[in-house]
Amino acid sequence: MPRYAFRIEYHGAPFNGWQRQIGQPSVQQAIEEALAKINPEEPRIAAAGRTDSGVHATGQTAHADLARRWQPFRLMEALNHHLRPLPVAITACAEVDEDFHARFSARERRYTFRLVARRAPLVHEAGLVWQVRNPLDLAAMQEGAAHLIGRHDFTSFRASLCQAKSPVKSIDEITITEQPVTGGAEFRFHLRARSFLHNQVRSIVGTLERVGAGAWAPAQVAEALAARDRSACGPVSPPHGLYLTGVTYPDDPFA
Amino acid sequence: MPRYAFRIEYHGAPFNGWQRQIGQPSVQQAIEEALAKINPEEPRIAAAGRTDSGVHATGQTAHADLARRWQPFRLMEALNHHLRPLPVAITACAEVDEDFHARFSARERRYTFRLVARRAPLVHEAGLVWQVRNPLDLAAMQEGAAHLIGRHDFTSFRASLCQAKSPVKSIDEITITEQPVTGGAEFRFHLRARSFLHNQVRSIVGTLERVGAGAWAPAQVAEALAARDRSACGPVSPPHGLYLTGVTYPDDPFA
């Protein structure tokens, strides 16, 4: 059976996350049901990142095995047709080798978190960014983030329900940028790692926001990490500022 | 009575435009009702641009006279509180002289139109940009737009219901930029003029889109303008890609 890789965008709001669960809407179910419209049996689809409820994606990657061979552009068009009107879109599609696995072949995941600091409510980007009312200090957040780069035990920064066998992960990048918006500023956190723990990105951003607000000193991020204790973490940021933006494989399936 | 100027953002979708109309939701009514919560009588508010149904704003400017003097930041906060949960936000507020008039003192209005060309549906920016499925040629659109710069009779590019006394207007700028988006490109049209006719921006963008698609030659834009005939215009673009981004006054009230 030919295997296809898909690059997928979705709005997190209407879904209880990527992963299929009985009685809850999921992105996985939406795509599997669209695939079932064009395939004799409903295929299973495996994704690089099992994003949480409310988390967005612009570069999720997944694969599925289909009964017959498709011209990739036609397959993408057919799926987008059957996905309507859900906020899920296939933006690239390619036939891949049978040893390609969207989850297990992935070498790197990239996430971006959008955080806007301003007093007035957001009207166009409601649901697309996390808004706080207090100003934030970029340099302090960058100083706090520096403590998290590299290989560490991230017990303090993972959900108590996290199922990963080990809390040790390597974070390769946390870049924070600032750009002005009317009446405030938008901060974008770009994180890159081979893989992340459950709630790791949102725990890191929620903690760094406290640093930016002046409630935490930057050095307290290092203390929280060293504590290896979930209660040492800052508040977990809400999901609607988080985007899975890309996944890297040894060979880019969409190149 | 002290006079206040307001810079206003709104999402166009829930409103039948800026201007108050019986039995239709309008941005003007929303703000006047918020003002009535903090002022003994409901004040009238006058805006620089009477945007159409569905059109967005990031820099609308308006003014109103209030019964008592306010600290501008507190006035902004009070109005944003009473505007909730409507997608309308006051992003700046200032006391101005009694001879300031948001509409009649305005020297320049600026609009931006967002147009995305790609096959896959948009999931995060649905309702915030106009999407077309065909690719667009930036250079051809720029060549077509050049014919519209300067002082012309824009009869071909205004709504048949337009109430302006004269169809002669001066367009000072039409800049078109292109940036890549996943699976396509976003084009932003920046237009600047002392004032615009009813539907003028949307008529221009809709016509230039036809040029970008290759359906019109760039020189046909000049022919359409010279025809001084509404039927010579291309299709009017939908409202949800259009933003009133700013208004210029002899003295910036928010400086």
From TrEMBL, chains A, B:
The keyword Heme does not apply. It is an enzyme of class 5 (isomerase). The active site is at residue 52. Formation of pseudouridine at positions 38, 39 and 40 in the anticodon stem and loop of transfer RNAs. Belongs to the tRNA pseudouridine synthase TruA family. This is tRNA pseudouridine synthase A. It comes from Pararhodobacter oceanensis. GO terms for molecular function: RNA binding; tRNA pseudouridine(38-40) synthase activity. Substrate binds at residue 111. NCBIfam families: hisT_truA. Its EC number is 5.4.99.12. Keywords: Isomerase, tRNA processing. Residues 10-104, 145-250 form the Pseudouridine synthase I TruA alpha/beta domain.
